[in-house]
Specification:
alpha+beta, 5-stranded antiparallel β-sheet, 7 helices, YbiO_bact, transmembrane
Length: about 300
């Protein structure tokens, strides 16, 4: 009991010595105020960051590219956590500095550790940063047909570290985001299907053009992948045994192959129906007579 009383008296004496001084009390109050201000500013920074992230995600969802909402929400949460951790870490360090803790050794140790991790994970950091830029710049989205270097296919997944694309023959290519230097996106805007129709020199060009305009108009009415009526541009090339007439059609993104096949089939049927001849290789033989014969 005497020991407890003695400890209590010592505590009261220490409080009187330290907090009985007005200057010490003001210093303590100012430290508390600064800690509170640091905390409030940190919360405000996180709130502003959340508003900015939400605005960016909403803008990406209105873009013409296909954008996976679940992926955008995931990325938004990841960025929120990254910013929150960074702001909170800075706030904690500032608060520790206010209470008199020497942060020099701690910062030095953290710098050495960060430097070691940075050297060991350069490619990983590069992949992650590139992945963020791919998603937020809408370079391509899930379901788009793209080409990266020699790999062409449909995007199956855009990860933070890798991108997966599936070729039309079934192979799945897994490409680290840091290795993506140039991307060709075939799904952003409408495509153009180009068909060159070959006819023989003996065919009537004006009649052929009229037939082609009729058939492409019919194709446009019965094919929902063509966005506007195809155009018959005219004679594109004079070949050794044929004329080539070019027909173009604006179609939905990445459907030019399918539309081109449809147009080829329908044009061939219509040319046959009107008796317009499609050229084919011809061989002409000349018989050379022997001058010495009968001499």
């Amino acid at each position: 009991m005497k020991l407890k009383t003695h400890l209590f008296q010592d505590l009261m004496t220490w409080l009187k010595e330290h907090f009985g001084n007005p200057e010490t009390l003001m210093t303590l109050v100012w430290i508390v105020v600064k800690i509170v201000l640091i905390y409030i500013i940190a919360r405000i920074c996180i709130k502003i960051a959340d508003k900015t992230i939400s605005h960016m995600v909403a803008a990406r969802e209105k873009s013409p590219l296909k954008f996976d909402k679940r992926r955008s929400d995931t990325i938004g949460k990841l960025i929120h956590n990254l910013i929150a951790y960074t702001v909170n870490l800075v706030a904690i360090m500032l608060i520790l500095g206010q209470v008199g803790l020497n942060l020099g050794p701690l910062l030095a140790g953290a710098g050495v550790l960060g430097l070691a991790i940075g050297f060991g994970a350069q490619s990983l950091v590069k992949d992650v940063i590139t992945g963020f830029f791919i998603i937020f710049e809408d370079q391509f989205g899930v379901g788009d047909v793209i080409q990266i270097d020699q790999f062409k296919g449909t995007v199956e997944e855009i990860g933070i570290r890798v991108t997966r694309i599936k070729s039309w023959t079934g192979e799945v290519h897994i490409i680290p985001n840091g290795n993506i230097k140039q991307v060709t996106n075939f799904s952003t805007y409408n495509s153009i299907a180009i068909v060159d129709v070959a006819i023989s020199y003996e065919s009537d060009i004006d009649r052929t053009l009229s037939v082609l305009k009729e058939v492409v108009g019919h194709i446009h009415e019965h094919t929902n992948k063509i966005v506007k009526e195809p155009e018959v541009l005219g004679v594109q090339m004079l070949g050794t045994s044929e004329l080539k007439i070019r027909v173009i059609a604006e179609c939905l993104p990445n459907t030019q192959g399918e539309v081109g096949r449809i147009m080829n089939a329908q044009i061939k049927k219509q040319l046959d129906a009107y008796g317009i001849e499609v050229p084919y290789p011809r061989v002409v033989n000349y018989m050379k007579s022997d001058r010495g014969e009968g001499a």
